[in-house]
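Sample 1 of the test manifest.
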Amino acid sequence: MTQTVDEIFERICVLIIPFNKKNIPISQDTLFSVDLELDSLNVMDLLSEIEDEFDITIPLNMLPDLETVGQFTKVVEQLLSEQ
Amino acid sequence: MTLDLFEKFNPILNDYNSLPQGEANPFTVSMEKVLSPTTAIINGRETILAGTNNYMGMTFNQECMDAAQEALTNLGTGTTGSRVLNGTYNTHKHLEDTLRKFYGTQHAIVFSTGYQANLGIIATLAGPKDYVVIDADSHASIYDGCAMGNATVARFKHNDADNLDKKLTRIRKNDPNAGILVVLEGVYSMLGDQAPLKELIQISKAHKAYVLVDEAHSIGVFGATGRGVAQEQGVEDQVDFIVGTFSKSVGTIGGYCVSNNPKFEVLRLVCRPYIFTASLPPSVVASATKALELIANNNLRSKLLSNSMRLNKGLRQAGFEMGTTGESPIAAIIVAEQNTAIAFWGEMIKEAVYVNLALPPATPKKLNLMRCSLSAAHSIEQIDFMLEKFILVGTKLGILQDIPQHVSA
């Protein structure tokens, strides 16, 4: 069940669609606060969606370190590999 | 990087500076004189208070005021010390006895505020190796308790039992022996909605988690003897910790936690927000004790809820979009545009009605709310006055298209 980083990124991009109000192109470097204009509550909601999509627990405590889509991808990859 | 510690607040400062000037600015409200639980002088006008969480109107109860005055005369203005040093008077112990009796529990601990009660209990119970699972719409004091305790924090969708089950299942799968604390609120304050405690507790217990219920907005308001939503829903025996406040129905300030856990009293030795602050002043302790006795023995709940139903119904019939139904003490009008909500508030204060302007991120679903919290002390005439002013301003701002034909409450 190992997934490549690209596969994880693709699935996260799908989850971001409802949060992407201005329809900007998403890359690993996309910043939630600046580029997507999400506040911390939005990011928490997105985190919750990602948890359910990948069936993992991403501790809320990690939130301050999750500023980009790429950082989220990395965390998901790491948590999946630990399973 | 910047040397300016305040630079990060620039966006908030910009928002603040764009607010209306003068009395229409919600941050300028100051009570010049408080006349009763439901009226005050604001901007020189006698104003109806429709957003104070003073659910029972206890702030001017004669018996509570007498008790407070007597304590002030006999015991002084403050304790000047922590509960674990010089700050425990017999009256603090008596207040804890009164709480034990009120809830029928073995243990009760009083804190100096409700915020500190959540902060202290959550942060102390759930340490670095434990888990806290909270509702997404939890109060700031719950979020802050989580941050302070260094436990792993997970968050489930508001009042969603299936989502809670998913989160707990995952935690248990990774960590079969971890300590887990699930934190719920009896009533969520912004829209007054109750948690489905039966379902949420059943799931929590199936995963061997402890359950804490915050009854800040439900003490006095729900349950046969006013203990809150856990009593109303008949699940008190399955709740491990109930947290609450004296600053709403009880009419003063302070917080508490009650429990039947046999080791509960150890918290007095390890809970930092309990230890490292001064205890409540004697007058506050005395009025809280008296108010709890009154709440247990007087049923003001039906009056409170019929007041709320009258306002909720009237506002809905007038054509406002409501976030509430009238089954709680809250009446919240949803306003689509934030600037309209701010203007709405400014017009209402000029019409001598004080309500709460509630904006994101303090609100669920990013709603802009004109939020009223009703009191059993409101008269029918006061409710109808609020209604009249809401309709007047709503029409003026174009939220209500026409003045409706049947404005009956």
